[in-house]
């Protein structure tokens, strides 16, 4: 099943240790480009996160952010009294040195000073385990979202490929009439000449025109490539690169068809084909 490279998902979980939340988002990219954002106290999880994403995804620029809000109990708040007193004494000494009037220090400002509040010692193993479990849950929803969007994109590509096939077959049916008109036009021009035309020369000119207008091979290759596009869309694996290559092949045949065009019908068909191919290519850019 084709998957889109554009998706978003967010999950969170609470426990005795606090609150964890994962947020993943991605956009299209030629390869898999992972950007994890992890709090410092859980930084050791980054290699595991990269490995986990690498197993679930193959393409896309992915931003994966973890937030951790630890639970705080009253018993966890410990003041480093000795350090706080030294800060107060240093403040008083500075006031005296600068000749400033003595003022009392705001206790809340003092608590905000680094080192005044002792950091509680936490066992991060349960938090790490919960974070990885939550990541799996987040990736499940994330991959589901990519698959749902992929189904929608594949339907759009399939619809346009069917329109492209109809345009190709319509032109194939019109070719005999186009060739007959070209023959009649050439015969009329030769008939208007004052000098009689050698029948052999006439046949040579007709053969030359027919060869120059021969697009049967281009039409056959277009049909083959369209069939391959539709088969690839049914695969249960990443198909974006394969489809992108097929778009290049389709565009090459449509360009050749346009360069060989000698009638309004074939010129119009070539333009329609290129429009449909470009529409498919834009959708395929978002497929994994």
Key words describing this protein structure:
288 residues; alpha+beta; 4-stranded mixed β-sheet; two-stranded antiparallel sheet; 8 helices
Description:
With 288 residues, the chain is α+β, with helices and mostly antiparallel strands. It has 3 domains: 7-73 and 133-146; 78-118, no CATH class; 148-284, no CATH class. It is 60% helix and 14% strand. It is built from 8 helices and 6 strands, in the order βββαββααβααααα. The protein has helices at 46-56, 81-98, 107-111, 125-191, 199-213, 216-232, 240-259, 264-284, and strands at 7-15, 18-27, 32-37, 60-70, 78-79, 117-118. The strands form 2 sheets. Strands 1-2-4-3 form a 4-stranded mixed sheet, covered by helices on one side. Strands 5-6 form a two-stranded antiparallel sheet. Helix 1 packs parallel to helix 4 and helix 4 (125-191) packs antiparallel against helix 5. The longest helix is centred in the middle third of the chain and has 67 residues, at 125-191. The protein is elongated. The protein starts with 6 loop residues before the first strand and ends with a helix.
